[in-house]
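During the second half of the funding period, the structural biology subgroup turned its attention to how the target accommodates small molecules. The most pressing case was manganese (II) ion, which had performed well in the primary screen but for which no bound structure existed. We therefore specified the complex as follows and requested a full 3D prediction, including the ligand pose.
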Amino acid sequence: MANKYVQKFVDDAAALCSPDKIVWITGEEEQLEALRREACATGEMELLNQEKLPGCYLHRTAPNDVARVEHRTLICTSKKEDAGNINNWMDPKECYKMLGEIYKDSMKGRTMYVIPYSMGVIGSKFSKIGIELTDSIYVVLNMDIMTRVGNKVLEALGDSPDYVKGLHGKVNVDEEKRYICHFPEDNTICSVNSAYGGNVLLGKKCFALRIASYQGKQEGWMAEHMLILGIENPEGEVKYIAAAFPSACGKTNLAMLIPPEIYKKKGYKVWCVGDDIAWIRVGEDGRLWAMNPENGFFGVAPGTNEKSNPNALYTTLKDTIFTNVAHNTDDNTVWWEGLTKEKPANMIDWKGNPYNAESGEKAAHPNSRFTARAKNCPCLSPEFENPQGVPLSAIVFGGRRAKTAPLVYESTSWQNGVFVGSIMASETTAAASGAVGVVRRDPMAMRPFTGYDMGDYFAHWLEMGKKIKNPPKIFNVNWFRLDDEGHFIWPGFGDNMRVLLWILARCEGKVDAVESPIGFLPNAEDINVEGLDITVDTIKELLDIDKEVWLEEAEGIKDFYAQIGERVPAELYAELDTLIANLKK
Ligand code: GTP
Ligand code: SPV
Ligand code: MN
């Protein structure tokens, strides 16, 4: 007999949505395999070449449903002020009423699946449990990859009411009635009229960031949009870094980095703990500890290749669900822009039509993705299953900036580091619907994912700083500076290791830096360019700070803070004043 709170949640949802059948996901392979077969029989998924891609499937979403929808994502707190000005808000009562009408009988003729899942190792005191109800087999199979699912989770929950409710209904995949709603005060998530990634895999952005950030604020920890990686030096010591970049700005790539030849030879290794989300606490030793609540990767496919990210590519060679990539019909495999130089001759594009190479259109959607199991990743950290997580030496913020932000700089204190995170800006990507390439403020890469007021979120960061005896140093990076012809100046990818090593050297007090108006910059000579076809002069160019441009930037920050509203902490305004004064010196 199930937990009575879960049972009531399921009964109430069933009464509302009227599914023909209710199926509890047990986590057993037999049940999952039957669901895979069913999805193939109905055309929801296609089985790919089982010699080349064993256990791999292709799925296409509706063309109107290919990314997160931030303008239809709501934070429903009883007081509007608590959701803040950056989030879209709706009164919870009104929202439940609106959703009730949409859900009504929406699962007639369908099955409702009950997915018990754990974010984090099942049963650990740092993990949290969710129950997602959904009428999509695709969601069940993705949740099985991205989280830990099944009966063991219900056993760990016992008779406790402490879990996050999630109700997902595809309904008619109607764009005009698509809503991703969060009720942080009720630990509840409701998602309707979508069947895409971050909108429907409710353990990910909805729970592990929006609801969890709210919980973290109450309980004294942090839920962040960060990758976690370990760098092992030739002596076998591993140091850990967490990094927050906005969606499609390089987290998966950095998390699975392969060191350049010169470092590989010396014995350096990089270990992936997580590629998207970090839950961070203060440990008993006074350091910050980060764990990855996920169990898989929902990664951007385009641009992933043998050279840019071989580890990701290898991870997707089995047990993977590909979404909205192109179908190579010659050998029943998959393709996306950037996988190989040559395009396969015969493809079906992401919309399901024969691909015409002359059309100038993309064969794979720019936000097409792979859902792959963490355990298949060749560089998965041995600490991946450690419920405590790993201790952080550094926190890194970064965005996609053609100009302005230098390759790397270091903040001067925790408070200044929080300021650096709060002023992050990045060019928008295909990960969310809307225009691409527009610079927007995205503090800590959390603009779309903070479940409460952004000013309060900054205050929480400052508050956490007071509790950490040995805080990690905070840095900012930018891999995306462009030259006048629009080419990336910095080689990026594996070579980002060169910047990470400078960061770690700073953490260990092994290298000097130069003071600048925005913080500490490297001496150009301290970024190792051995084996690259760029010179120290290029590094100098990448580290250049244009004071005029930064003064304009400061104006933009002022406007953004004003938009967030009165809860922006005074400490951050003081940091802004210092920045402006430094720039005018
Ligand atoms: P989400 O899953 O949306 O949170 O994205 P992410 O932050 O994990 O981004 P990801 O690593 O998937 O990279 C997104 C895009 O940026 C891909 O097309 C990459 O090829 C590209 N990219 C990643 N790292 C670099 C880099 O160092 N330099 C350049 N120029 N491009 C990069
Ligand atoms: C992101 O957009 O940051 C992602 C993909 O990681 S999604 O799961 O759609 O949020
Ligand atoms: Mn992400």
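Two results from this model are relevant to the next phase. Residues 224-296+382-584 form a domain with the Phosphoenolpyruvate Carboxykinase; domain 3 fold (CATH 3.90.228.20). Residues 547-564 form the longest helix (18 residues).
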